[in-house]
Design goal:
The structure holds two protein chains of two kinds.
Chain A (H helix, E strand, L loop, with lengths): L1 H7 L2 H26 L7 H17 L4 H23 L6 H23 L15 E2 L9 H5 L1 E2 L1 H19 L1 H11 L1 H6 L4 H27 L11 H11 L4 H22 L9 H19 L19
Helix pairs in contact in A: 2-7, 2-10, 2-11, 2-12, 3-4, 3-5, 3-10, 3-11, 4-5, 4-10, 7-8, 8-10, 11-12, 11-13, 12-13
Chain B lengths: L12 E10 L2 E11 L4 E6 L5 H9 L6 E6 L2 E2 L5 H6 L2 E4 L11 H6 L12 H15 L14 H14 L4 E5 L7 H16 L3 E6 L2 H7 L2 E6 L2 E7 L5 H9 L16 E9 L6 E6 L2 E6 L6 H9 L6 E6 L2 E2 L5 H6 L2 E4 L3 H5 L6 H5 L10 E2 L2 E2 L1 H14 L16 H13 L5 E5 L7 H16 L3 E5 L3 H7 L2 E6 L2 E2 L3 E2 L5 H8 L9
Parallel strand pairs in B: 3-8, 3-9, 6-7, 7-8, 13-20, 13-21, 16-19, 19-20
Antiparallel strand pairs in B: 1-2, 1-4, 4-5, 9-10, 11-12, 11-14, 14-15, 17-18, 21-22, 21-23
Helix pairs in contact in B: 14-15
The chains are: A mainly alpha, B alpha/beta.
Chain lengths: ~325, ~500
């Protein structure tokens, strides 16, 4: 029992939560934007893989770290564009297109990796983002080390939540985005373009997903491995539902999941952990997330037009 | 607004030779008209006459194949609702275009500001909406979420949306179809205020008394063509109806009924929505059920369709008490059902006419044999119904959602009547239909009666009940009045029963 208390009062545990949550927050915000506009983007998993690869290879090729982030974002937007064209003007099934995008983005990343580094057995490392202390705040005992000594991308992730929430609820653009996911004919009847809004949302959202992937290579692991995204994209789909399509609640969900994840790693190292197979600990965040999802999604207010293609002039 | 200097009597809107085709169907055929300042022009026509198509072209939802739209002397670019809005055209759609999870204010604001503006300016907008609400008599709470509003309130939001954008021309597509009589009066009051302030209104309807009440001029469309334009004061309901249908309207005139044996009897039945109800449906007789909506009509319909079972009391069919009552049993017992909502429970929108025609009889010859579907047989059956009931459609393979309400109802009617049912449950059979279709459906019900069926007609329209029914019951709070034979009750008498008076003895 003491060991668990020790974990909970260590600053590094709380710092780890923010770090683990960051890629989830980027990708969850990306998915949330898409879904708020009425498009389910199941390409998320593959787009994260592509973002992780594109950002890393760009930095390996000599670009600065922020250049890598930008390249990752552009790669995500490119796959977002394909998704958007197929699902919005062509109105194809969003499930099928999304899974297709995941498959093609993942395999394109692996293929490009093999093409660019044919000889290596282990991937080369890059110099990743280093933690930046926020002046003043990082000197606060405990809280400073726990919260204000993170890499720039982590701060950027939380800033993104603010921007997404502000745009959605406080600007005409956000109003139009929320409306197009609820009733596209309301948007058309007010003289706006359903196609432009939805495509824009999918493209920008996919860009954010790719930044989430790039966090893994540019901020967390400093290298690119196959399978490194490891289902995080699917977790983000669940987090959007968990957060009832609200940016702040989805962020809380990401933190909760990250908390369970950080906890299970540390539990493995306790005396109790020596007795239990480590796979049990790996399951913990997923099991707890499923439980939380069951409890939360009962009062979920799903956008009414989610997954419904809009064809102009059809009865 | 495009404040081009106009003489007072120049038209605010001019449609020139508008033509629109959907495949082989010409929905609008060379339609031209002018709209003057401060007038209410009614656009009258049956379902499928092309009214909504014409207005969708005017508003820019569709592009016309030919012709032009001029607003305040300027030609509108085709297919751009934004351009129509900027030119001062506002449209209240038949199916509301509101985002249900957003507030009234946000729905009104949607699209009125540049998307790249930083804030929403809700404060100033709220004040403007409040002023418009007051000026036009459109009371609604700007901070209420749409999902919590009644249908009448939602329509007020739609009108406010148009007024907020300084609409000078207001198009209302079948605005009264969803309103109670009191709400309709309030709407008319709003329209009169709008016209007094110099707006022009196009009012689409197929309800003649409303057209007579609100309009100053009437245009009549039939099969996509403009067939008449008259000043309202120079015409009457009868003439308009003839223009609309293209033939003289002969209202159904039932002959004397010859009631036969009881085919279905309820003995003191109680269900979730019915209290101690006894009812006898006789062969060769139409039993009318009058009442204010929501007083147990649905519960009675559910019981007869097999969707509900009696909690107390018995249901007898042809003298036998039934047990184990299910929809399957109801079909087997020869109960033909015309459901209240043809879209939700009467048909499956994305199924073809053929599939919809055999929903109840798919397992019977000729629709299937030895457990296999016989699509050729099923299609022939659908074709027979299409021919006999004059259903306007491209063919039996058409998805039913593409049909007008009247044609959909004819298919349901054909599906029921072709089985020669012994009992017909007709729940609101003519709701939302135009005159031609109403007369047709009513005459078919009378024919079924004359060939020996027992008909239960549920309707909220007292005129319909009084015209067609041989005996009338009134339903109120789940209780049934005694049977009143034809001619013994006046509307006012029935109204008292509908309000719940007279039931004391049974309570």
């Amino acid at each position: 029992m003491n060991e668990i208390v020790d974990i909970l009062i260590s600053a590094s545990f709380w710092a780890a939560i923010l770090r683990i949550a960051s890629p989830l927050i980027f990708a969850t915000m990306g998915e949330l934007i898409c879904e708020r506009a009425g498009v389910l983007n199941l390409g998320i998993e593959g787009i994260m893989v592509m973002g992780a690869f594109a950002g890393w290879i760009a930095v390996y090729a000599g670009l600065p770290l922020w250049g890598g982030v930008a390249v990752a974002m552009l790669s995500g937007m490119a796959f977002g564009l394909i998704h958007a064209v197929l699902t919005v003007p062509f109105g194809l099934s969003q499930h099928v297109v999304g899974i297709g995008i995941t498959l093609i983005a993942t395999s394109s990343a692996y293929y490009a990796y093999r093409l660019s580094l044919p000889e290596v057995t282990s991937p080369p490392r890059i110099e990743p983002f280093q933690p930046v202390d926020i002046p003043g705040l990082s000197d606060i005992p405990f809280i400073g080390t726990a919260l204000f000594s993170q890499t720039p991308l982590t701060y950027f992730a939380f800033f993104t939540v603010l921007v997404v929430a502000f745009v959605l609820y406080r600007t005409p653009l956000g109003l139009a985005l929320r409306a197009v996911g609820e009733n596209p004919s309301a948007v058309e009847a007010q003289g706006l373009s359903v196609t432009a809004l939805r495509m824009g949302a999918v493209i920008v959202g996919s860009g954010l997903m790719a930044v989430g992937g790039a966090f893994l290579t540019l901020s967390a692991f400093s290298s690119f491995f196959f399978e490194m995204v490891n289902g995080r994209g699917w977790i983000c789909i669940a987090l959007v539902v968990f957060g009832a399509w609200s940016p702040s609640k989805a962020m809380m969900g990401a933190l909760l999941f990250a908390g369970f994840d950080a906890l299970q790693v540390r539990l493995q190292q306790t005396s109790f952990g020596a007795m239990v197979p480590y796979q049990v600990f790996l399951m913990i965040p997923y099991i707890l997330s499923i439980l939380a999802l069951v409890l939360m999604s009962r009062r979920a207010n799903v956008p009414a037009a989610l997954m419904v293609p809009y064809n102009r002039g059809e009865r | 607004m495009t404040a081009t200097p106009l003489a007072q009597d120049d038209p605010v809107l001019r449609l020139c030779n508008i033509t629109k085709r959907f495949g082989a169907l010409t929905a609008n055929d060379g339609i031209s008209f002018d709209l003057a300042r401060g007038e209410v022009m009614a656009l009258l026509g049956e379902n499928g006459a092309g009214k909504t198509t014409l207005m969708n072209i005017l508003f820019g939802h569709y592009s016309a194949d030919d012709g032009s739209v001029e607003v305040f002397g300027q030609t509108l670019p085709p297919g751009q609702p934004g351009a129509a809005l900027r030119a001062g055209v506002g449209m209240v759609h038949q199916h509301f275009t509101l985002a249900d999870n957003m507030t009234v204010l946000d729905n009104i604001l949607l699209g009125t500001e540049s998307l790249w503006k930083f804030g929403l300016g809700r404060g100033a907008a709220r004040a403007r909406v409040a002023a418009l609400s007051r000026d036009f008599g459109l009371e609604v709470d700007p901070d209420a979420v749409i999902a919590a509003l009644s249908v009448g309130e939602r329509q007020r939001v739609e009108i406010l949306k148009a007024l907020y954008r300084d609409a000078r021309i207001l198009i209302l597509d079948e605005p009264t179809a969803v309103l109670t009589p009191q709400e309709t009066d309030a709407l008319f009051d709003t329209l009169r205020r709008a016209v007094a302030l110099g707006l022009s209104v196009i009012f689409i309807s197929h309800k003649l008394h409303e057209v007579m009440a609100i309009s100053t001029r009437v245009l009549v469309l039939r099969h996509g063509r403009l067939v008449g334009a008259v000043a309202t004061q120079d015409t009457d309901r009868h003439k308009l109806a003839e223009m609309m249908v293209g033939a003289e309207i002969i209202p159904p005139a039932p002959s004397k009924a010859t009631p036969g044996v009881p085919l279905l009897m309820l003995n003191r039945v109680t269900t979730a929505g019915l209290r101690d109800v006894s009812l006898t449906l006789r062969a060769g007789q139409i039993t009318g059920l009058a009442g204010v909506s929501g007083n147990g009509q649905g519960a009675l319909a559910d019981l007869l369709s097999g969707l509900a079972v009696p909690r107390a009391g018995t249901l007898e069919i042809a003298g036998d008490t039934v047990t184990d009552w299910t929809p399957r049993r109801a079909i087997a017992a020869g109960i033909g059902r015309i459901p209240e909502d043809r879209h939700k429970t009467g048909t499956i929108a994305d199924f073809t006419l053929t599939e919809n025609a055999i929903l109840e009889t798919y397992a019977d010859i000729p629709n299937s044999r030895y457990g296999w579907m016989d699509w050729r047989g099923a299609e022939q059956r659908a074709e027979a119904i299409i021919a006999q009931y004059d259903i306007r459609c491209p063919g039996p393979g058409t998805r039913i959602r593409l049909l007008s309400g009247g044609n959909m109802q004819k298919l349901i009617l054909g599906r029921v009547l072709e089985e020669s049912p012994r009992v017909i449950l007709a729940n609101q059979p003519v709701r939302g239909l135009d005159i031609g279709a109403v007369t047709y459906v009513q005459n078919q019900l009378l024919n079924a009666r004359d060939s020996g069926a027992a008909v239960l007609l549920i309707s909220e329209d007292l005129d319909e009940i009084l015209t067609l029914s041989d005996v009338i019951h009134v339903i109120s709070e789940g209780r049934l009045s005694p049977a009143f034979p034809r001619g013994t009750m006046k509307p006012a008498d029935l109204g008292q029963w509908m309000a719940g008076q007279g039931f004391e003895y049974a309570a």
